[in-house]
Every structure is written in structure tokens, then in C-alpha cells.
Amino acid sequence: MGTKLGDIIQAEPITLDDLRGRVIAIDAFNTLYQFLSTIRQPDGTPLMDRAGRVTSHLSGLFYRNLNLLEHGIRPVYVFDGESPLLKEPEKARRSAIREAARHEWEQALREGRIEDARKAARASSRLTTEMIDESKRLLEALGIPVIQAPSEGEALAAQMTRSGISWASASQDNDSLLYNCPRMIRNLSISGRRRVGRSRGYKIISPELIDLAANLRHLGISLKQLIDIAILIGTDYNDKVPGIGPKTALKLVKQYGNLEAIEREKGIVLDFPYQEIRDIFLNPPQVEIPPLKWSPPSRDTLMDLLCTEHDFSESRVTSGLNRLESKLEELEESAAQSSLMDFL
Questions:
Q1: For residue range 214-241, what is the model confidence (pLDDT) as tens digits?
Q2: d(CA 127, CA 250)
Q3: 250-277 as b/e, with b when 16 or more CB fall inside 10 Å?
Q4: What are residue 341's phi and psi, to 5 degrees?
Q5: Looking at residue 258, what DSSP letter applies?
Q6: Residues ≥6 apart with Cβ < 8 Å to 128
Q7: Closest C-alpha among 292, 288, 34, 295 to residue 170
Q8: What value does the mean pLDDT of the chain take?
Q9: DSSP conformational letter for 139
Q10: How many Cβ atoms are within 10 Å of 303's Cβ, its own excluded?
């Protein structure tokens, strides 16, 4: 998912401590798919309760947000609404890929090919309405604000960041930049190793901050031109133009200025409504965001949802909540002391 701009976009390593006290608007769907893909058993089977219901998303949300809150970060989750009609072919394509991956996973399991099964399982992840509703319940029980976007969640997170409601958006997709998000964080709360492709090698993964204005200055282009580059290499609303990668797209846009001139002067046929796609990024729906409020976790609600309904370990959930409450008290005391010192 998302536009592959990694070859031309620069990111700065950061730590969770750098984000202390910051409000971060998190792309909920992107995060949930990440949990469904990665939180699995060695053979690719997702975490499930005794009734066979998938709980990978709940486990990921609970423990990741404990970590964020303990670092003094204020997360707010933005959920997707109705996507633009131009995205329907892409949604159908993704659905077909997930279904094919599910069949491949099942066959690999039958044949005892555990590594192949694990890889196929990651691509078979499916987010259901029930999972979305459970995720919202969990976040609200943790005292974390939940915002429903009218359309793409990344677009609303970008609006929140531009207006100063949030300091940055967080997503694994570069599409946030195309919606004019001033600051974007990748790998939020991730720190560790990730396997490189199909090899046995690993690379170190840590949080990264992408500054949109700094990148546009470095590349010598405008936001509109960045969007045109994205359209050339493929977005959620169109396939990539054959033979054009990020660096070639950058060169073409800098030489000719925009897609209209590239099509006219270079003779490249763009047989899709690129003006409409460009407009999706430049003019997404704008909404008024209600005041955000974080509250103490509701221990009873969390224990009921995680332990009673979905068989999570009571001792582990209790331990996590105890640790969080202790850390929040410590942060409050530290903030109070800082305020007192400022007054003195």
C-alpha cells in the first residue's frame, strides 16, 4: 500500500523520547494491517482466542500504546471513512491478492513448508468491520482519542498536523506527504530487526521523521510536482507508468514541470485521469476536529474486552496497566515539578 517514494525521500532517525509531550495522529488502518501481518505464530497463524477469533490487532494496539503512553506521547487514531471511487480497482486488486495468499498459505501448511506458509500468511491479512469496532473500543478504554475521517485517514491526519492539532502524523505509507503533511513519522515505536526481503539478513529499524518542506527544498520541487512524481510511479488510484521509477520520475518532472507537459513533450501516454488523482491529494475533504481529550485507562473495560471476551492473560494485562499507571504518575510529578521551577 502507498506510494514508493523511498528512493528520493530523506528521513531523520529519532527516538520515542524525542516525541515526549507531542500529539501524534496515527493512521489507524495502516497500523492495524501492520499488526495483522506481523503478529503471527511461526507458521503464519494469527493470534486467536478460544473461539477462533483473531486477536493480533488487539495485542498490537494494547502493547504498542502502553509503550507510547509510557513515553509521554499523546496518540490519536484516525480511521478511514469512505474511499474515493477511483480506489475501487485497487481495493479489488488487494482483495484478490489476499485471497490468493490465503490459498497459498493453506497449501504450504498442508505440505509442511513452514517458511513459505509464514510469508504467504503475512500477505493474507484481512481487516474486518468487527476488528475495527473492537480496535476503537480498546483505544477508547485506554483513554486515547479516536477520530473518524470522512474519507482517507491519512488526509485528515495531514490536516490535523497542518493546523497544529497534532505535531506529526504516523504511517508506514508516504501518501501522508502527498496530502501536504508537514511532518510524518515512520516506524513509530518500532525498534529492532526486520528481515530483508527473502534473504536471511536483517536490518535495524527505528523511528524516522520526514520533514516535507525540507525534502521539497532538497529535491527542488513543489508539492504538486511531488504528487505528479507519485502518480508516475503509481498510487492507490493508478498503476505505475511502465519503465519509470522514483528517480526517473523526479528527473522528468524537474525537466518538464508537470504531467501535462510530460505527456505532450515526451510523448508518454497517461491513460488514466491523473488530473482527478492529483485533485484527490490537493483537495481532500476538510472537517472540523473536536477538542481532543486523553483520559486515564479504564481498567475494568480493558480487562473485560481483552481477558473476558478474548482470553488474554489477566496477569500480563494487569502487569501492563500497573506499569502504565505508575509511569503516568511519574510523568505527572515531573511535569508538576517543571512547572513549579518555571514559576520560581
A1: 999 999 999 999 999 999 999 999 999 9
A2: 34
A3: bebbeebbbbeebeeeeebebeeebeeb
A4: -65, -35
A5: S
A6: none
A7: 34
A8: 91
A9: H
A10: 17
